[in-house]
Amino acid sequence: MHPVLVLGLMSGTSMDGIDAVLAGFEDGRFKGLRATHHLEYAAPLRARLLQVARSDAALSLRELATLDIAVADRFAEAALGLLATAGIEPGAVSAIGSHGQTVFHDTSAQPWATQQLGDPSRIAARTGIATVADFRRKDVALGGQGAPLVPAFHHALFASGDEARCALNIGGIANVTLLPGTDAARVRGFDTGPGNGLMDEWCERHLGRPYDADGAYAASGRCHEGLLRTLLEDPYFAQPPPKSTGRGYFQLSWVEQRYPMLDTLAPADVQATLAELTVRSIAADILAHAPGTRRVLVCGGGARNGHLMRRLGAALPGCAVQASDDYGLDAGWVEAAAFAWLAVRTLAGLPGNLPGVTGASRLAVLGGVFRP
Predict the structure, then answer these.
(1) Does 305 score more than 80 pLDDT?
(2) Ranges assigned E (strand) in 203-325
(3) Share of the chain above pLDDT 70, in %
């Protein structure tokens, strides 16, 4: 098999924009990134996507179709911008792996359902590159939750025979991959609960900023133990894996419903408490399900939050907590790279899910291929 270039596109639960990477592969193995690019959503589109994802917003079929087109166009722009920056012609790229934008993910009741926007046929038509997409629904059709899907890539990239590790992605929602060794059958992964999402919403409400840079706002407050204890009583945290969730569940209205006196607290103290909620829910799951973990490799936006990283280190004594940068891949680009890798798997007719993670009845080739 000759070396190939595959483009990965990802916008996660933070919905801050689209990450685009150009990844090299040889014999199906990830060989690193050749170029990266980030494209923000236009403010009105981001606001509407967040509104849809945070609530059971009523949508006409026309608006749903229009949003699908708008997201696809932005994804295509991100791909073309990456290629222009890298000086690479579209014809040199074997495929695009597009996750799409999740706007609905509900595993609280059967049938489990997940919905991503970003029409892959439109991405393929606009870029001229075959696009692999719709990765989650095959897993759901086989009884899985369709998420998380990145643990298979975490295993390929980060697993070690010398020590037990966890890969921890902190986006809007946090998810953890347990890597006790190099055997893929032993990998487990699940969403632990809130990541940056609640903190981002609170920061936007009180500071007018989309996120808490370096966790400075949270660090300026004090954790309110009563609020934290109330939030941690939510049944999701005690639920055994496999489990997955989304911004439609963990949003500020969830906090306000559980703690009606929220507005009586100092805003900085609420931010500190939301940060601690992320930390303690992650740490509790790692200690409960992978107590032998010696290293936690953090990726996603949370890896750049100094306050969050320090608190995680304190909550996980005996574990080295560090960004994934020193272990083969910059923390900010892991998920986009994962969907390039999943596209390679699909094109090779190889499974992309891990039943031990999602709960699916079997391994499966994920997604579909959409030609230009």
Answers:
(1) yes
(2) 295-299, 320-323
(3) 99
Same domain for 194 and 167, yes or no, is yes
Report the greatest alpha carbon distance in the chain: 62
What confidence tier does 2 reach under pLDDT thresholds 50, 70, 90?
low
Contact 346, 104 (CB under 8 A): no
Is there a contact between 22 and 7 (Cβ–Cβ < 8 Å)? yes
Listed residue (146, 157, 123, 94) closest to 9, CA to CA: 123
**What average pLDDT does the segment 222-229 reach?**
98
Radius of gyration of the chain (CA): 20
**Number of domains observed in the structure of the chain:** 2
340 neighbors 23 (Cβ within 8 angstroms): yes
CATH number of 285's domain: 3.30.420.40
| Listed residue (136, 100, 87, 150) closest to 329, CA to CA | 150
Q: How far is Cα 257 from Cα 246, in angstroms, rounded to an integer?
A: 17
Residues 96 and 137 in one domain: yes
Instruction: Tell me how crowded residue 5 is: count the other CB atoms within 10 A of its CB.
Output: 18
What pLDDT, on the 0 to 100 scale, is given for residue 106? 87
CB of 312 closer than 8 Å to CB of 321: yes
- Residue 142 and residue 25 in one domain: yes
Helix (H/G/I), strand (E/B), else coil: 179: strand
What's the burial of 13, exposed, middle or buried (CB within 10 Å: 0-12/13-18/19+)?
buried
**What is the C-alpha separation between 255 and 24, in angstroms, rounded?**
43
pLDDT tens sequence across 116-170: 999 999 999 999 999 999 999 999 999 999 999 999 999 999 999 999 999 999 9
Q: What is the pLDDT of residues 22-75, one digit of tens each?
A: 999 999 999 999 999 999 999 999 989 988 887 766 789 999 999 999 999 999
The Cα 369–Cα 279 span in angstroms is: 38
Q: Is 5 left (phi over 0), alpha (psi -120 to 50) or beta?
A: beta
Tell me the pLDDT tens digit for each residue of 198-216.
999 999 999 999 999 999 9
Check whether residue 161 and residue 274 sit in a common domain. Answer: yes
Q: How far apart are CA 368 and CA 78, in angstroms?
A: 21
